[in-house]
């Protein structure tokens, strides 16, 4: 007789099923329109089981945001094969773009973070981590003589995150993100022309071309 899985593992799997069902609903209709009964149905569970793990919709939304934050920060800080810090930033953006295209938890977490008055603390923490991660690469790029700008690294990092956020939002509104890879590629070409020194642009563009090859998700 096969050994039964530990109860703790089964509980974790059921909890994760609820989080994934909630993410699909939040991604589809937003926080305000997603009811707990709809989330339970989407997750293939009962409301009683849902309440066992998450007594409120807010706690469920926080769980989605925390999971999205973990996945996104892992992508942002993953080792890269790029020959330069800015190239590493480009490669990291491809990973985040891929998450947006394939992972409902990432899409839902970012959507929740942008809905006014929904959940503040965890979304603020995630964006602060995101900006800090970008700032580290920007600072390294400046020190190597790759990036040149009169702005401070923190200002550039915050702006880069804002550019990416706006790019994915517009892509979602206008094309359901079907053009997201192309849109992010274009965003980087604008930024490379603006802040990368002339004799390093070809190297960074080569990284961009490899990362967003044919914009094929």
Automatic annotation (TrEMBL):
InterPro entries, sorted: ArpA-like, CprB_TetR_C, Homeodomain-like_sf, HTH_TetR, Tet_transcr_reg_TetR-rel_C_sf
DNA-binding region coordinates: 35-54
HTH tetR-type domain mapped to chain residues: 12-72
Alphabetically ordered keywords of this record: DNA-binding, Transcription, Transcription regulation
GO MF term (any one): DNA binding
Record keyword Transcription present: yes
Keyword Kinase applies: no
Top-rank taxon, per record: Bacteria
Database matches in PANTHER family: HTH-TYPE TRANSCRIPTIONAL REGULATOR YJDC, TRANSCRIPTIONAL REGULATORY PROTEIN
Name of the protein in question: TetR family transcriptional regulator
Gene source species: Plantibacter flavus
């Amino acid at each position: 007789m096969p050994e039964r899985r530990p109860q703790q593992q089964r509980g974790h799997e059921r909890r994760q099923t609820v989080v994934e069902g909630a993410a699909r609903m939040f991604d589809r209709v937003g926080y305000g329109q997603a009811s707990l009964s709809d989330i339970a149905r989407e997750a293939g569970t009962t409301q009683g089981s849902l309440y066992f793990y998450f007594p409120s919709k807010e706690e469920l939304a926080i769980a989605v945001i925390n999971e999205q934050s973990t996945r996104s920060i892992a992508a942002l800080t993953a080792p890269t094969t790029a020959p330069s810090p800015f190239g590493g930033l480009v490669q990291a953006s491809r990973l985040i773009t891929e998450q947006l295209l394939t992972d409902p938890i990432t899409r839902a977490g970012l959507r929740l973070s942008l809905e006014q008055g929904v959940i503040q603390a965890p979304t603020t923490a995630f964006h602060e981590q995101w900006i800090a991660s970008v700032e580290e690469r920007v600072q390294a790029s400046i020190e190597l003589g790759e990036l040149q700008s009169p702005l401070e690294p923190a200002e550039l990092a915050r702006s880069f995150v804002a550019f990416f956020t706006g790019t994915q939002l517009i892509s979602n509104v206008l094309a359901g993100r079907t053009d997201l890879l192309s849109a992010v590629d274009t965003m980087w070409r604008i930024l490379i022309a603006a802040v990368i020194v002339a004799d390093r642009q070809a190297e960074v563009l080569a990284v961009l071309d490899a990362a967003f090859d044919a914009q094929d998700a």
